[in-house]
Amino acid sequence: MLVMDLKTCVTMPAGLRKTLILAALVTISTGVGLIIDRPKGAVVEWLAIPFLVCGGCLLTWAVWPLAGSRPHTQPSVATRLLAKLTMQGRLVRFFPAFGVALIILDLIYNWAASPSPSFQTEDVIVLSAAATLLAYCFVPVRFARERDFALLFFVSLNAILVVPLLIARLYYTDLERSVDLYSWVALAPQASSLLNLLGIGNQVHVVAGSTAPGLTFVPEHVGTQVTVVITTSCSGIYSFGIFGAAFIAFVLTEFERLTKRIWVLLGLGLIAAYAANVLRMVAIIMVGYYTDTEETDLQNMLIAHSYAGWLIFLAWITLFWGILMKWIPEGRLRPDDDFSPRTCHGSEPACSICSKALSPAIPATRCECGAYYHLSCSLVADRCPTCGSPRRQAIGRVPTSADP
């Protein structure tokens, strides 16, 4: 009886998979956000680990294969992209070495070049990518899609947040450059303009002794000028990066091809995330403008700074992912219980490497994960580009709908 109840609990998410995945994505994103963009001095930053653990358990529950199911073999944009980047899987075996090299490079940079040798947010992002590379080869094949999601998420996060920062430091030959550059270009002017439209007079200016912009305004019940320095902790750039990286990784792992509709969705998602980031800054200023008095000494705005940005980020990703899950565009991968090989024309099976039709007249081979390839195509790769396992030739006929 206990075994039957356990099986029921494991298989129950089949009808509620989208809801569970949404809850897992929101919970994990919240945990990552609290680690990377943690509100300084706020107790909520200690919730990062419980959020990550709970989110990981929910995601595992949601994607756990049902009884009798086989590994998911449907190719996606991610599988094809990773196959090309890894030379058809040849480089996958070196991922642990790449991870160790990334850790060593980060340590050398911190010791030799960084103005601050202590670990910063950028270091956490780089080391997270290194940990993903170290663990990649040890993840079971049945979780290949989740494994690719994690890898692409941290690669995208580095591409959005770390690489531009390093380029800016090289361009300005200034190793002390930070994301304050983002505040000057894409946050402070926009927030200032929106506040002016709302009737809150303000101005953006240079602050002595700081590389971040200052935004000066006069609270309604104070009467004296107040300057908010928009530093890294209140820029919201990390929240934007987390959302953007998760969205890019989701699109790449969930779709077979990037259609115009998906490109539009991706663009709208990133634009909306940026808009939410500007509104986050505006909301913090509005709290100080309308609620603070001489007695509160700007404590209301400081509380909003510590909590409002995090809560706005949490509400935003919940709303957007909820809409995305409900009205997913056409072209998403079929359910995991569909194990037929990918097709290119109607119901005609297709090679997972070249995407051309398989034919009984052309020798074909099948990987242990279930993916089919032309034998000639498989000869160029010593590893399966779908699952990354070493290629083992097993020549056979082209699969038909009658095959199990």
Distance between the termini: 31 Å
Q: Count up the helices.
A: 14
Specify Rg, calculated over alpha carbons: 25 Å
Count of beta strands: 8
Strand order of the largest sheet: 1-2-3
SS content category: mainly alpha
How can the largest sheet be summarized? 3 strands, antiparallel
**Low-confidence stretches at least 5 residues in length (pLDDT < 50)?**
1-8, 10-14, 66-73, 329-347, 393-404
Mean pLDDT: 75
What's the SSE pattern? HHHHHHHHHEEEHHHHEEEEHE
Cα shape: elongated
Helicity level, as a percent range? 40-55%
Taken as a percent bin, the fraction of beta residues is: 5-15%
Summary tags:
3-stranded antiparallel β-sheet; Herpes Virus-1; 404 residues; mainly alpha; 8 strands; elongated; disordered N terminus
Summarize the structure.
The chain has 404 residues and is mostly helical. Among the domains are: 73-173; 342-404, Zinc/RING finger domain, C3HC4 (zinc finger) (Herpes Virus-1, 2-Layer Sandwich).
Structural notes for this entry:
The protein has 404 residues and is mainly α. Among the domains are: 73-173; 342-404, Herpes Virus-1 (2-Layer Sandwich). Helix content is 54%, strand content 7%. It contains 14 helices and 8 strands. It has helices spanning 2-11, 17-36, 48-63, 77-85, 95-112, 121-136, 144-171, 180-186, 188-197, 232-235, 237-254, 260-291, 299-326, 375-378; strands spanning 202-206, 213-217, 226-229, 343-345, 348-349, 364-366, 372-374, 395-396. A 3-stranded antiparallel sheet has the order 1-2-3. The longest helix is centred in the C-terminal third of the chain and has 32 residues, at 260-291. The radius of gyration is 25 Å and the shape is elongated.
